[in-house]
Automatic annotation (TrEMBL):
The protein's name in its UniProt record: Tripartite ATP-independent transporter solute receptor, DctP family
Alphabetized UniProt keyword annotations: Receptor, Signal
Keyword Signal on entry: yes
GO molecular function, one term: carbohydrate binding
Source organism superkingdom: Bacteria
Organism for this UniProt entry: Vibrio xiamenensis
Coiled-coil annotated residue ranges, if any: none
GO CC terms, sorted: outer membrane-bounded periplasmic space
Length: 329
């Protein structure tokens, strides 16, 4: 644990320190450092890498993307702050992190807001979110595009969860936002906010009864070892957002800005494909290591969360966004 944190600190120091000097290397390509909290096999890593290759090609090598996986630059909250203050240029962060800056974002990560992957892809690629994504400039970053992170389900130790009653008294890790805590309450349990990197140990040590996430993260981070009962509640399809520092974006020419924005958007359908292609394999890996996948009747959970959905759509901006999303069903 200590070693891992020391490694992260050393990496952050080197990377952030390096950012101060790169602009002086006039002839070299400008490096874009991107923070990512999962592995280099993850579909989002692969989509981002492909985006980086295309960016290098289309800008005649003026930009070079380097992705730092496995939370090497810190957890998502820390990474977003580094982007915000221009110490690094890009990051992939889950929607709840951005929602902490602007509550309008919570609409795109609410329980049961998408009917499935196709609906979500339509929303992400239709332009319906453009205005929202440009609106974060005032915080020092912009959202270039959204990636799918599939559907999230509960996983626990000690048995599957198939009803709201089964959730009673269960402490489940959630991502760090109020909506996520409320979401867990509407499902019948107690949400404990923390960063992804802490989940495995917290479940192992009994601080948590389980967590909720998609099959790929569940498998990739070996969380089946500590919480082997995966119950397909599919309660959330939280977008992951590709964010870029406004400071950095403004340092690019207008043409290069247009190129990076276009290529990021084009990488989204690619990421959906990569994502959907990895789900079954991820399940198989977990199953081979003893995990149990249980289908769940999601209706009672949907009904239990209906009131929360209504409560989360309060402001005119949230209402307009919600309508845009449902119109694309
Ligand atoms: C998913 C998502 C990540 C997020 C993680 C989490 O894996 O893709 O962006 O960090 O869930 O639960 O923290």
């Amino acid at each position: 644990m200590f070693k891992q944190s020391a490694l992260k600190l050393a990496t952050i120091a080197t990377v952030v320190g390096g950012a101060l000097s790169y602009s002086s290397l006039v002839s070299a390509a400008t490096e874009i450092k991107a923070a990512f909290n999962q592995s280099d096999k993850h579909p989002q890593y692969l989509a981002l890498k492909d985006f980086g290759d295309k960016l290098a090609q289309e800008t005649d090598g003026r930009y070079k993307l380097t992705i730092y996986p496995n939370e090497l630059l810190g957890d998502q909250r820390a990474a977003l702050e580094l982007v915000q203050n221009g110490a690094i240029q890009m990051a992939v962060v889950a929607n709840p992190l951005v929602e902490n800056y602007d509550k309008t974002f919570r609409v795109i990560g609410m329980p049961y807001v998408y009917t499935g992957s196709e609906h979500q892809e339509k929303v992400f690629t239709s332009g319906a979110l453009d205005e929202l994504f440009n609106s974060t400039k005032k915080y020092g970053f912009e959202v270039l595009t959204a990636y799918t992170a599939g559907a999230r389900s509960m996983y626990t130790k000690g048995g599957a969860v198939t009803s709201v009653a089964d959730m009673k008294g269960k402490k489940i890790r959630v991502m760090q936002s109020d909506t996520m805590i409320k979401m867990l309450s509407c499902m019948g349990g107690t949400g404990v906010p923390m960063s992804q990197g802490e989940v495995y140990t917290a479940v192992q040590q009994g601080v948590l009864d389980g967590a909720e996430n998609n099959e790929i993260t569940y498998s990739d981070l070996k969380q089946y070892e500590v919480a082997p009962y995966f119950s397909a509640t599919r309660h959330l399809m939280v977008p992951d957002l590709v964010v870029i520092s406004s400071y950095f974006l403004n340092s690019m020419s207008a043409d290069d800005q247009a190129t990076i924005k276009r290529l990021a958007k084009e990488s989204t359908p690619e990421e959906f494909k990569l994502w959907n292609a990895q789900i079954e394999q991820a399940k198989k890996v977990a199953q081979d290591k003893g995990a149990t996948f249980t289908e769940v009747d999601i209706k009672p959970f949907q009904e239990a969360c209906h009131g929360l959905q209504e409560a989360l759509v309060e402001t005119p901006a949230q209402k307009a966004l919600f309508e845009k999303i449902t119109a694309l069903q």
